[in-house]
Amino acid sequence: MNYRGDFVKNIQKNKISDAQKKAVKKYANSKWRPNIFIDTDKREPIERWYTGKGYKSFNEYVCDLIDQDMEKV
Fold first, then answer.
1. Neighbour-count burial for 8-44, b at 16+ CB within 10 Å, e otherwise
2. Whose CA is closest to 6, among 14, 32, 63, 72?
3. Residue 59: its pLDDT value, please?
4. What is the distance between the alpha carbons of residues 70 and 11, in angstroms, rounded to a whole number?
5. Are 53 and 61 in contact (CB under 8 A)?
6. Rounded distance, CA 37 to CA 15, Å?
7. Which stretches within the chain are classed as H helix?
8. How far apart are alpha carbons 7 and 22 in whole angstroms?
9. CA distances for 15 relative to 5, 10, 47, angstroms
């Protein structure tokens, strides 16, 4: 059995260029990831609420709420 060929293929598949690493780091640094804690018993009602309003994600919902609140000022 020749395992060497598979090993080389796997190593090459997982290589990330320096340009890719730089791009990933630049993207990650352009985002703010605040931590929030919500009781787990509220998860399902919140998910039903924002999906029922047409939001695709919790992030989209929260960002829209923040935008609406900031416009009121």
1. eeeeeeeeeeeeeeeeeeeeeeeeeeeeeeeeeeeee
2. 14
3. 95
4. 49
5. yes
6. 36
7. 4-13, 18-29, 43-52, 58-72
8. 27
9. 16, 9, 37
Structure tokens at 36: 């929030």
Cα separation of 3 and 11, whole Å? 13
Tokens 């018993």 identify what position? 41
Residue spans of the domains in the chain: they are 4-72
Q: Using DSSP, state whether 17 is helix, strand or coil.
A: coil
Contact status, residue 50 vs residue 62, Cβ threshold 8 Å: no
At 16 the pLDDT is: 87
pLDDT, one tens digit per residue, over 18-71 is 999 999 999 999 999 999 999 999 999 999 999 999 999 999 999 999 999 999
